Amino acid sequence: MSDPIWTVSDLAEAVRASLATAFPTPLWVTGEVSNFSRAPSGHFYFTLRDDHAAIACTLWRSRAERMMRGEGGGLPKNGDAIEVFGQLTTYAPRGTYQLDVQQIRAAGAGAWFQRFLAVKAKLEAEGLFDAARKRPLPRFPRRIAIVTSPQADALQDVLRTLAARAPMITAVLVPTLVQGPQAPQAIVAALTTVAQCAAALRLEAVLLVRGGGAAEDLAAFNEERVARAIAACPIPVVSGVGHETDTTIADFVADARAPTPTGAAVLIAQGWSEVVSQVQELDARLKRAFRIQWQQVNQQLDWGERDLKRLSPAFAIRERRERLEQRYAALREALAQRLRSAARTLEATAARLCHPRAQLAAQRTALEAIAQRLPHPLALLAPYRRAWLASSDRLRAASFDLAEPKRRLETLAARLEALSPTAVLARGYALVFDSESGRLITRAAQLEPEERIAIQFADARALAEVVGGKNTE
Q1: Which residue among 173, 175, 320, 455 is the one 20 to 30 A from 364 at the CA level?
Q2: Percent of the chain clearing pLDDT 70 (strictly above)
């Protein structure tokens, strides 16, 4: 039979059940607060630790609000020694166990925090924190030492920052532990190595760096021996430990303190960064001044050349010739434009004149045709015939295959035909003319005895002679 294989979830549930069985009721636990923080949800998280162990604690928002209102002594802060009443539980997603805090009460100052204050007070009394003993950082360092763990992310942050801001700086890595019980002694040994090799390697400064972490992770940098090793280093030391809110004894003793490892690299490269910016600014200013001066010299040369040309007779003659040529060209262009305008006007006038001639010719042809068909007396009816023909022509021209205009044209033509003298004669009427003078006789009183007259019927003309005297009935 092979051993059973547990899933992670089953194992976590078994651990939870075991804890619930072993610790069925809430219990009091004493320790020192570290890493106290508030989540955006309003819940609080912190670590309860002593010299050898630590446990995560969770304080839910509703209980924290009651404590902030004064129900339970208020909320603790980092370094406080407290007693916590809570239920031991597990957090399966992370595989950890924690205390679900229900009550908190003070237990006096924590041992770890008391030790921190004691070391700080002792070193401060000895003057290790005095600003007078702190050495200025080299403005343009060429070689520096970096004391940190080779596996730390802080090392890569420092190297990237130096490469970007001051690539001329050579960094020498002095490896050391930065966390754990052996870390203080390792840091002291690394700083001692730097002190021994500083002259031979021409080292000008030291960066003591470590990334952020819990308070217990930074404990090595609060040790007295580490602080004394920093103070004994023959070259300036820059401390870049933890995050900006973290403060250690090393920060107080170091010649300069940076909020982060990256900040330590920025601080040591500040001189080079500033000088590069200054050189770039000076270069831009020099180029701008040279460009302005060059433009001014060129402008002066142009003005001098112009003045010299104006004093030359050849220049004056050439200038006047150019003006004359320009005016001549302008006159020629103006004259050509006037001629083109006049030609367009003549063409338009000719077009307007030719059109009436064509109309007159057409009308003359029509009149000649009418004169051939009608006898001479019908000349009196010519205006009516011309009006009829003109109306007929206009109606035909405006037809455009439109039914309504065509019908109107036919109606007008019928009316004109009814008014035609030929149509009147066809109904039995006749016209009487003097056969000699051709005048129209409209009354009997105009007749003379034995006078020869011409009678116009619809289809022919007949000659007759008047019998009797005037007013013959």
Answers
A1: 455
A2: 87
User: Percent helix, strand, coil in the chain (nearest 5)?
Assistant: 55, 20, 30
Cα 334 from Cα 398, distance rounded (Å): 45
- pLDDT for residue 242: 82
CA distance 125 to 338: 108
Whether the Cβ atoms of residue 145 and residue 264 lie closer than 8 Å to each other: no
Segment 190-245, tens digit of pLDDT: 999 999 999 999 999 999 999 877 777 788 898 999 999 999 999 999 999 988 77
Q: What is the distance between the alpha carbons of residues 58 and 96, in angstroms, rounded to a whole number?
A: 12
Instruction: Compute the CA torsion angle 461, 467, 471, 473 (nearest 10 deg).
Output: -80
The mean per-residue pLDDT over the stretch 313-331 comes to 84
Angle CA 187–165–258, to nearest 5 = 40
Instruction: Give the pLDDT of residue 309.
Output: 67
Return the structure tokens found at 76.
């603790």
Q: Would you call 79 exposed, middle or buried from its count of C-beta atoms within 10 A (0-12, 13-18, 19+)? A: middle
- Please identify which residue in the block is written with the tokens 């109306």: 391
CB 218 within 8 A of CB 240: no
Q: For residue 194, which of 142, 144, 149, 267 has the smallest C-alpha distance?
A: 144
Residue given tokens 């001066």 in the structure block: 293
State the amino acid at position 159 in one-letter form: L
Contact yes or no for 58/1 (Cβ under 8 A): no
pLDDT at 60 over 60: yes
- pLDDT of the residue at 52: 85
Q: Checking DSSP bridges between strand 206-210 and strand 143-148, what pairing results, if any?
A: parallel
DSSP 432-472: EEETTT--EE-SGGG--TT-EEEEE-SS-EEEEE--SSTT-
- Burial class of 233 by CB neighbour count within 10 A (0 to 12, 13 to 18, 19+): buried
Give the angle subtended at the CA of 186 by the CAs of 34 and 143, to the nearest 5°.
105
- Residues 6 or more apart whose CB falls under 8 angstroms from that of 162 comprise 169, 171, 265, 268, 269
**How far, rounded to the nearest angstrom, does the alpha carbon of residue 388 sit from its chain's CA centroid?**
77
CA distance 139 to 169: 12
Say whether pLDDT at 143 is over 70.
yes
* CA 424 vs CA 39, 148, 352, 458: distances in Å: 121, 136, 41, 8
Tokens in use for 353? 């004149």
Tell me the C-alpha distance between 11 and 15, whole Å. Answer: 6
Of the two residues 46 and 360, the one the predictor is more confident about is 46
